[in-house]
Structure formats: C-alpha cells, structure tokens
Amino acid sequence: xxxxxxxxxxAEVEVTGPDGEARSFSVFLAERTSHGxxxxxxxxxxxxxxxxxxxxxxxxxxTFLARSSIAVARVEGxxxxxxxxxxxxxHEVEVVLTSGQVIAGLISYVLPHENCRVVDYLNDPAPFLAxxxxxxxxxxxxxxxxxxALARVGLKT
Length: 157
Description:
mainly beta, 6% helix, SH3 type barrels, three-stranded antiparallel β-sheet
C-alpha cells in the first residue's frame, strides 16, 4: 500500500475568506510535479480540485477548503526561481477585492512578447493571480477581484 502513496510535505498558508477573516492552515504539497520541482501552493490553487485537504493550525483539525471561497492565500517566499533567460515583467498594482480590501504589491510574470501586457496576465485562465508583498506572496482569487489599478501612470496595459 505504501507504494501507492504520493509523497507530500506540508506548507503553511494564511487563508482569507470573502468576509475578510484570515486563518492559518497547513496544506499538503506533492514532492514532484510535472514542472519538475516540488508542488507550490500556487500550483495547488490553480489546479483542478475544488476541495483542498488542510489542517487548521489553530484547532489541529482536518478540514477541506473550498477553493472558490478562498479570496486570498498568503505564503512565504519567492514566487518562483528566476532564471536569466526568462526575466519577469513586473508592475506595481493595487488589487481591490469585492470585500473592499486592498492588496498593494508587485505582479511579476513571464509571457511571450506578443502577449505580455498586464491585461494578458490578468486574463490568463489560472483562477489565482500572484501579488508579491515584500517577503510574502498573496495569491488572489480572480473571482473575488473588483479591479486592479496600476500604481504608476503610463505603463503598457
């Protein structure tokens, strides 16, 4: 039976619901994925599963998070490893959620030159967009976004 188990490791995530309440959970991530490295929280959130198994860090209870009701998931650390061949495009933004909460930070993405506008990144089919907030990354559910504003005027949109 152990041969059939997929090795997983835990990652801590601060989850904010549509009401603005934040709570910490540990989610389970695969050690290997199709992109060659370990699974990241953004891979889990942008994956096909609607319910995600997690441990509530406050109560230590097993729970299943409905991905669609996660407004924001905050994680530590870099968004991805930057390689010199694919340097990301970055823009400072303010993301306004339908709850009124504002998330200020940096969107950072790598897209083909012909589709590298901010609007192209926002319209990517992945349900979550990443906003870098200093040392943390806010993974924002697009279904909970009211608008995204560029912090500086004159940027390519």
